[in-house]
TrEMBL record:
It is found in: Endoplasmic reticulum membrane. This is Cytochrome P450 4A11-like isoform X2. It comes from Enhydra lutris kenyoni. One of its GO terms (cellular component) is endoplasmic reticulum membrane. It holds the Pfam family p450. The gene is LOC111142984. Its cofactor is heme. The chain crosses the membrane at residues 12-32. Heme binds at C425. GO terms for molecular function: heme binding; iron ion binding; oxidoreductase activity, acting on paired donors, with incorporation or reduction of molecular oxygen, reduced flavin or flavoprotein as one donor, and incorporation of one atom of oxygen. CDD domains: CYP4B-like. It comes from the Eukaryota. Keywords: Endoplasmic reticulum, Heme, Iron, Membrane, Metal-binding, Monooxygenase, Oxidoreductase, Transmembrane, Transmembrane helix.
Length: 478
């Protein structure tokens, strides 16, 4: 069968017609998308018109603030120049209001807006949907079930376990002193806080610091991954143990309860609303939040004391008068070190372990100064900028523990190292206890000084990290 030239021309004409139609449809869709983006940008511009901000590029927004390694410094500049809050544009159609004023913080944290999905979604495969990622009624139910795990009766026995883990770390530091002129402390502290969590949360009797001290294994995420390998087995064994031991009061009469006990008893009482998946998510969330954030806090506290030797020595004298050689430290001691506590809080002000959190407004909001935002808007609560805001903290870059003297006064939402409102950190007392134990025992054993050639460069990740680690010179005290 032959094909004529005319048939070919007709075929090509049909194809050309289809391509023309497709091109027109594509152009229409492109124009519709462009119009949608334009209208959305206009809505955003109207929403933030009452809030001045630094000049931004029409397409790239304020992306340069995030890409030049100066994000924290840029946040400080905003707090100094633009009252209460300022918009930060990311590309042409994404914007969030950066908040660094205590009155604004109080209004937002007093509501029940969900955490902004984009800021935390990537964490779900790691830790599941526990307290950190949950919202709404499910979050409230979990929070209520987990609150008994942080009662002081549960926390009291943990102090000795914390001290054991810290002593192991200090022993390793003593061994390493002869090998290096300075020591990177964050990796060691991260392993120590993980070791503490395993002991306190799961009554684990091993020594994760000794098991995992490899160059690759020193960093927190690697340590966290390895820890998760144990949790399923531990949960299974504990379930069987609790079934044999009986009810909560019987178990309490035999031994102290840990975090996992509380979780499993909560599951027994709320089987329909607290599944095995929920339980695992809360375990993983506690592991992540409990060792990452506390490791950041302790590391920066020790760095702050290393750079302020006069305050370091005053803390050491207070601790020596209280503990002697530090052979034992108890729950009762933790409230008897006021100056050390002041220094810890001042370091947490300068270096908040969680630099900020995001919220998506579930309804319109009006701030105390009359400015407002519509439903659906994203806000970033910058605790770092709040803590460095000169309108809230005079001379904010100066390390001044007297800000936290017992007779001092401040706004209820001026200092938020553990966030605030109903969604504040459920483990804040646990974290403060561990920080006090770690700082007290470290100062009894070592004199700290910064490494002038490797000063840390703070960078805001999920927790406040240093781009180049935190290096200190340690001198063993006799």
């Amino acid at each position: 069968m032959s094909v004529s030239v005319l048939d070919v021309i007709r075929f090509l004409g049909g194809v050309s017609g289809l391509l023309q139609v497709a091109s027109v449809l594509g152009l229409v869709l492109l124009l519709l998308k462009a119009a949608q983006l334009y209208l959305h940008r206009q809505w955003l511009l109207r929403a933030v018109q009452e809030f001045p901000s630094p000049p931004s590029h029409w397409l790239f927004g304020h992306m340069h603030e995030l890409q030049n390694g100066q994000e924290l410094q840029e946040l400080q500049k905003r707090a100094e120049k633009y009252p209460c809050a300022s918009p930060r544009w990311l590309w042409g159609s994404r914007v969030s209001l950066v908040v660094y004023d205590p009155d604004y913080m109080k209004v937002i944290l007093g509501r029940s807006d969900p955490k902004s999905d984009g800021s935390y979604r990537f964490m779900a495969p790691w830790i599941g949907y526990g307290l950190l990622l949950l919202n709404g009624q499910t979050w409230f139910q979990h929070r209520r079930m987990l609150t008994p795990a942080f009662h002081y009766d549960i926390l009291k026995p943990y102090v000795g376990l914390m001290a054991d883990s810290v002593q192991v770390m200090l022993g390793k530091w003593e061994e390493l002193l002869s090998q290096n002129s300075s020591l990177e402390i964050f990796g060691h502290i991260s392993l120590m806080t993980l070791d503490t969590l395993m002991k306190c949360a799961f009554s684990y009797q091993g020594n994760k610091q000794a098991d995992r001290l490899t160059p690759e294994g020193r960093w927190n995420h690697r340590a966290c991954q390895l820890a998760h390998q144990h949790t399923d087995r531990v949960i299974k064994l504990r379930k069987a143990q609790l079934q044999e031991e009986g009810n909560l009061e019987k178990v309490r009469s035999k031994r102290h309860l840990d975090f996992l006990d509380i979780l499993l008893f909560a599951q027994m009482e709320n089987k329909s609303s607290f599944s095995d998946k929920d339980l695992r998510a809360e375990v993983d969330t506690f592991m992540f939040e409990g060792h990452d954030t506390t490791a950041s806090g302790i590391s920066w506290i020790l760095y702050a004391l290393a750079t302020h030797p006069e305050h370091q020595q005053k803390c050491r004298e207070e601790i020596q008068s209280l503990l002697g050689d530090g052979a034992s430290i108890t729950w009762g001691h933790l409230e008897q070190m006021p100056y050390t506590t002041m220094c810890i809080k001042e370091a947490l002000r300068l270096y908040p372990p969680v630099p900020g959190v995001g919220r998506e407004l579930s309804k319109p909001i009006t701030f105390p100064d009359g400015r407002s935002l519509p439903k659906g808007f994203l806000v970033l609560l910058s605790f770092y900028a709040l803590h460095h805001n000169p309108k809230v903290w005079p001379n904010p870059e100066v390390f001044d523990p007297s800000r936290f003297a017992p007779d001092s006064s401040r706004h209820s939402h001026a200092f938020l190292p553990f966030s605030g409102g109903s969604r504040n950190c459920i483990g804040k007392q646990f974290a403060m206890n561990e920080m006090k134990v770690a700082v007290a025992l470290t100062l009894l054993h070592f004199e700290l000084a910064p490494d002038p050639f490797r000063l840390p460069v703070p960078t805001p990740k999920i927790v406040l990290m240093s781009k180049n680690g935190i290096h200190l010179h340690l001198r063993k005290l006799l």
